[in-house]
Amino acid sequence: FATLLETWKIDAVEVLEKGPLRAALWVRFSGKNSRLELTFRLESGRNAVDLEARVFWNERGARLKLVLPGMNEARFDVPGGEVDRGAVGEVPARRHVVGGRFGFASDSLASYEIKDGALRPTIVRASRYATEKRHTASEQPWKPAVDAGELRFRAVLAPGDADWTRLAQELEKPPLVALCPYKKWEGKGKATGLPPSASLLF
């Protein structure tokens, strides 16, 4: 059984963008030794909340969970298909978890738990590396724990009936921007035959 060590408190909030098409809110949660920074983003015409997270993790023998109330059972994306689960403990999922009124997808989180009517994604852990003997968090402090340092992930919250395959793919394969040197246009493309104007991205 898990023991609750801390409930982190919000100690800073800042509006980063406030406009008719986009808005962004930065929120910082802090504990005794670590902190979590979340940036919530809204865009006009997009029925979802995009989330950017940065964790500064300095713990041993602990894990950090995000608690999202309002879910008693859900459909978990797993390799080769989907599976329905309730409060069965911490279980793996591949790209998204959807149940009832909302769903959650991430580009890197893969461990979830439903407990007390809430979805609880595991953000980071501070467990020991594999050993033949069990040690407490305070024993052998010179040996490292996993997931220490600065960690980042992106996620999305949206209604349960959203297109979750598309939302998960957007997180998994975002558009990439490549900076290329300028080259003078030399007429029609030899391979495509496109004109020098009125073609894609011109």
Give a verbal description of the structure.
With 202 residues, the protein is mainly beta. The protein has one helix and 14 strands. It has one helix spanning 164-172, and strands at 9-18, 22-30, 35-43, 49-57, 63-65, 68-69, 74-78, 81-85, 91-92, 96-99, 102-106, 111-115, 118-125, 149-159. The strands form two sheets. It has a nine-stranded antiparallel sheet with strand order 1-2-3-4-14-11-10-7-8, with helices on one face. Strand 10 and strand 11 (102-106) form a beta hairpin. The protein is globular, with a radius of gyration of 22 Å. The termini are far apart. The mean pLDDT is 86.
Short description:
With 202 residues, the chain is mainly beta. It has one helix at residues 164-172, and strands at residues 9-18, 22-30, 35-43, 49-57, 63-65, 68-69, 74-78, 81-85, 91-92, 96-99, 102-106, 111-115, 118-125, 149-159.
